[in-house]
Amino acid sequence: MRAIALVLAPLAAACSTVTSEPAPPASVAVVFDRETMTRPIIEGVADRGTGRPVEANDPVRIASISKLIMALATLQLVDEGKVELGADVSDYLGWKVRHPDYPDVPVTLAQLLMHRSGLRDDAGYVVPLGESLETRLAEPEAWYRGAPPGDAPFEYANLGSPLVATVLEAASGERYDRLIDRTLFAPLGIEACLNWIGCSQGFADSAVVLYRSGGEVARDDAADRPPNCTIPVGDGEDCSLENYQPGTNASIFSPQGGVRIGMEDLAKIGQELLKPAEQSFFSERVLGELIFSMMAAPKNVEFFCGYGAGIQMIEVPNHGCNDALFGDGKPRIGHAGEAYGLRSGLWLDHEGGTGIAYFVTAVPDRTAPDEGGFAPEEVALVRRAQEMTAKAGK
């Protein structure tokens, strides 16, 4: 399959100059168990401008799977004794985070990670360098107005991620990107970064460019990568982190969706989550907190069956969830990603001891905001990868 992709991709790029047909979108799927991984699908072109074929571990913006990585970093700091899931986040920040209608009710990391804090995205969730996260959180539009934090209904809110990341910075004294590298990427031998910060130029040059279904560039072409500015910057601000103070506005690292990582490296994280505590990089406490959060998760939220601390549950039998990705009746945990024409996922079958890390690009946008569910393109990719892996194992 790899050899075929190498031959076809340049031909497709050459033909496109005549037929105006776009080069095939990039798709990668890595299937793994606790110790090994296979690469059944590596297809398409990572950069249509150059015709460069995609490779298995080319870095790609994985969108909301970044929230699972953020949750794991949070639990690592819990394990280090630097944060508590049930503590008032204001205690770490040095300024008050309060729902305007419930000034006496604290906001906690647990609420934020489970999308039960009352935060919503109506005020926007990108806070550029030089602007104030504290000010953004004081806007009434940033909050669900019908219930206090903790009692608010589940509402998937990207704005909670910059707040979590800023709390982690304040508690540890570390910049968010460096904290993620210390607690997760470096110990697992992973090369990855947030908004390309800290990654080598060679790594950035191997990026998967994200395209819309119509062929236009959405993110991460050469103009959107180093040495150009890769973080949101306010008017009149220099694109420099030299004077950035950890614990003030970690939105600049896009913790809600800005991780760039290859599928082989993402699979490494999945492998550690599949292992028992005595074999895993993650401690028994970290793994236990993650699983406990799933047990306490609200059920039947949006298209998936439950949402814990930065982790989703899908395809639980008899739950009536609109979340058929694998279609084999086995429940899985992990996280989905969707942004800029990309669909991605990291999903674990804990009972079977297997998982998959994948992405597919140039997927059409949803036809309605509440459409929900997985895209046909990613369903087809995942099921084909499963079938190919099963056949290879016979």
TrEMBL record:
Q: Where is the signal peptide?
A: 1-20
Classification via InterPro entries = AmpC-like, Beta-lactam-related, Beta-lactam/transpept-like
Keyword match Zinc: no
Asked if the record carries the keyword Ribosomal protein, the reply is: no
Q: Which UniProt keywords apply?
A: Signal
Q: Where is the Beta-lactamase-related domain?
A: 24-365
Question: What single Pfam family name could you report for this chain, choosing any that match?
Answer: Beta-lactamase
List, alphabetically, the PANTHER family matched. Answer: BETA-LACTAMASE-RELATED DOMAIN-CONTAINING PROTEIN, D-ALANYL-D-ALANINE-CARBOXYPEPTIDASE/ENDOPEPTIDASE AMPH
How is this protein named in the record? Beta-lactamase family protein
